[in-house]
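Appendix B, Record 12. Input sequence as logged:
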Amino acid sequence: MATVESSSHHVYVGSDAVVKIIDAADHSRLDREIALAPHLPAGLTAPLLGSGRHRLGTRDVRYACYGRVPGAAPGMGMPGVDRATARSWAEEAVQRLDLLHKWTPSSDIEQLLREPLDHGGFTGRAAFSADVENLAALDREGFVPRRLLDGLTAIAERAPLHARAVVPVHADCHWDNWLVQDQRVTALLDFEWARFGEPADDWFFLARFSGPHMESVLDVIARATGTSTETLRAECEVREASHLVADLRFGLEHPSAHGQMAADRLRALEELIVGRYWWRGGGSSPTPCP
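Logged structural output:
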């Protein structure tokens, strides 16, 4: 089997199967995915063939084996993908996510999806404002420039009071987690962060990581959902800000292990605040951030 790069697992791909392995003492999100897999809407993801724990030397590992689905991941930013293909994939991805959002899980699976999960996403204005304040207090050496903290405060001030938890969401559906073949989407993978949330929790990932095709993907989502692009831009902006704040806090708390991640997130925050990422393509934008 061939090894596939992964930031959180050991992943091996064969002609008919894919195996994910993680130290059992690490996070329990693979357990979540394993429990969900047999119950998800038919055809949405790769079929689970088997799972369990195995003693490997002095350690216990958790593994999951999935059937190999045809296709390959487009990758973050859809490198080398033309506009028509990106739009076609986005249309199919929106349809598959709509299938997930309309899914009614059984009571025990609903309970699993409602279990607390530190997903780093937007949960409401008060919580987000508190996270920004905590980031500023943690950043004693001024790693995050004041203008960016002020920009985050401005986003928090216009954020919705509350985030709803009303539909099942994938919550990590960037383009590394999709499989495509020719003009068709074949599967959505990695349901470790799945939970109850709002559809916008998924629309953010789909649009933000589509590289030069962000505007086209936003348009696809707007047309499919009957949502204005201005509303989508605002929903995506606050969600990106929430994820960046969570990651920056984690990076500052663990500088030796995650310093590079913090630097990457700082560049993304600059693009979000100063570059006004979600508004530079048009639309009726909010008041510019400092």
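The radius of gyration is 19 Å.
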